[in-house]
Amino acid sequence: MIVRSLNDIIGTERDVQAPTWSSRRLVLAKERVGFSLHDTVLYAGTETEMWYANHIEAVYCIAGTGELVNHETGETHQIAPGTMYLLDGHERHTLRAHTDVRTVCVFNPPCTGREVHDENGVYPLIIETGS
């Protein structure tokens, strides 16, 4: 059994910062459970272009408001607490945060904690090796 709090993660290597977001990685590939779990905040007034070419991501908004643009279809969806979206088709997308948007994200395959978006908004596929 693993028990950890957000306070255990803040300020550690599991607390990953980027210009438009911060992601606290609660469960990572090294836990070997088949997914990773992240508490992510996208900062108010920012836009983040993403494309998870190597991962499936489920996102559940727990605070804040914004909008999600699906670059594959052109559709725009309002994001607010209680909204979930699933990137099951590796869709290119942009999240526009009107306020700080706090989300809980699940990735498969699991992230190692070292991933950051590249110039295309993609997380590289990093495989955790060892025990």
TrEMBL record:
Sorted UniProt keywords: Lyase
Superkingdom classification of source: Bacteria
Catalysis: reaction(s): (2S)-4-acetamido-2-aminobutanoate = L-ectoine + H2O
Biological or metabolic pathway of the protein: Amine and polyamine biosynthesis; ectoine biosynthesis; L-ectoine from L-aspartate 4-semialdehyde: step 3/3
Keyword Lyase: yes
Enzyme class: lyase
EC number of this enzyme: 4.2.1.108
InterPro entries found in the cross-reference section: Ectoine_synth, RmlC-like_jellyroll, RmlC_Cupin_sf
UniProt GO BP: ectoine biosynthetic process
Molecular function GO labels: ectoine synthase activity
UniProt similarity note: Belongs to the ectoine synthase family.
Role summary: Catalyzes the circularization of gamma-N-acetyl-alpha,gamma-diaminobutyric acid (ADABA) to ectoine (1,4,5,6-tetrahydro-2-methyl-4-pyrimidine carboxylic acid), which is an excellent osmoprotectant.
Cited PANTHER family: L-ECTOINE SYNTHASE, PTHR39289
Protein's recorded name: L-ectoine synthase
Record gene name: ectC
